[in-house]
Amino acid sequence: MGHVFEFNDANEYQRWLNSPSRRFAAELESRLMMDMLKPMPGETLLDIGCGTGASLEPFLGFGLQVTGIDPSPYMLDIAITNVMNRVDFYRGFAEDLPFDDNSFNYATLITALEFADDPLKALEEACRVAKDKVFIGVLNRYAIKGFQRRVRGLFTPTIFNRARFFSVWEIKQMLTGLLNKAPMSWRTVCQLPVTGNRFLSRMEQSTLVQRCPFGTFAGIVVSLVPRFRIRPLTLRYKTGQAGPLPGLPMSPYRNAARFDHVP
Length: 263
What we know:
CATH class: Alpha Beta
Structural class: alpha/beta
Helix content: 25-40%
Low-confidence stretches: 250-263
Shape: globular
Radius of gyration: 25 Å
Strand content: 15-25%
Mean pLDDT: 81
Largest sheet: 7 strands, mixed
Distance between the termini: 48 Å
Number of domains: 1
CATH topology: Rossmann fold
Number of strands: 9
Strand order of the largest sheet: 3-2-1-4-5-7-6
CATH architecture: 3-Layer(aba) Sandwich
């Protein structure tokens, strides 16, 4: 990843996650992730850029076998404290994952692509290690809140000064370049002011509302279509007059081709 969170960054990020307004947004984001991934209990998931582990709780509660990876030892220290020994943690970069192909059912990048040094390579690695689906959750570039963050960063240093924000269309374009016509879908949440109001909460969970491309948090899921490598085989044959096969009449052609078995 491009930016590795230092000690102060990790603590500032955790304070942001613990803010009351953030808790309500995190609940909406978690519901969106689970609804789009539709995992089955017992399946495996890799959270790339797991940070302090805030995004791991929904997967653990659903009964998934979860692995987290992050380049920051300070973020991992907080994550271990938060989820204890329920997750296997690794230190590493999104662009160079230390896992074999198809090692997990799912891979997720949740507010992690923003800090990657090479976002396209990070997506390629996620698609390599997953075999079913990849979920990408980003802070929407075209959301009002995203614009406010960028303006605030001009006057006050924040962790988001080091972030690169994406839109739904940019993520889709990168995935299409990697996977061609693999099925993918997207939704956004936090369209409305963050509040605990039940009516607004129900509106946020409406599929119609989530199709608006300007929500603060955008989720994109891509289903990985198996690809096969075709190896050409050489077919050897020789011409000549062939006799009839047992049980079959003589060929009306005097010169027929006889194909030898190719082991």
